[in-house]
């Protein structure tokens, strides 16, 4: 990890060091878009590998235990794995939607108000589609509706 990243406490995502903005650099230029595309594609690849590992694990470990407790434990383990994979499947869809936004040159701008989301926020959450202010408001509204 480069020395500057240690000082900031920033970790590399998907093995890619955080983007270092240059003074006067245009927001979401081709270099930045390429950087986030690499991150998103690597992340998607990691998630797909995890799905494959789970499938292989479930096929290899599937057994018809005569003991109901053993069978229930295995079913619970598989249920937890499937729930995790379902969350990852939804995340893969969000990553693919974000990659499409990069292709359409619409990445990095808030879906709600249109302002720049910001490189630092996108480093932390590459699939972010709202600026921090709009996301905060959306979460407040969601809590009010739920409460």
List keywords for this structure.
Four Helix Bundle (Hemerythrin (Met), subunit A), 147 residues, mainly alpha, 0% strand, 5 helices
| Distinct helical segment count | 5
Radius of gyration, taken over Cα atoms and rounded to an integer in Å? 20 Å
- Can you tell me the residue ranges where pLDDT is under 50 for at least 5 consecutive residues? 1-10
> How would you describe the shape?
elongated
CATH architecture descriptor text of the largest domain = Up-down Bundle
Classify the beta-strand content into a percent band: under 5%
Determine the fraction of residues in helical runs and give it as a percent range.
Answer: 55-70%
Give me the CATH fold name of the largest domain: Four Helix Bundle (Hemerythrin (Met), subunit A)
The CATH class assignment of the largest domain is Mainly Alpha
Structural class: mainly alpha
For the termini, the CA-CA separation is 43 Å
Q: What is the chain-wise order of helices and strands?
A: HHHHH
The fourth-level CATH homologous superfamily of the largest domain is DksA, coiled-coil domain
Total DSSP E strands: 0
- Overall mean confidence score, pLDDT: 87
Largest sheet: none
Give the count of structural domains.
2
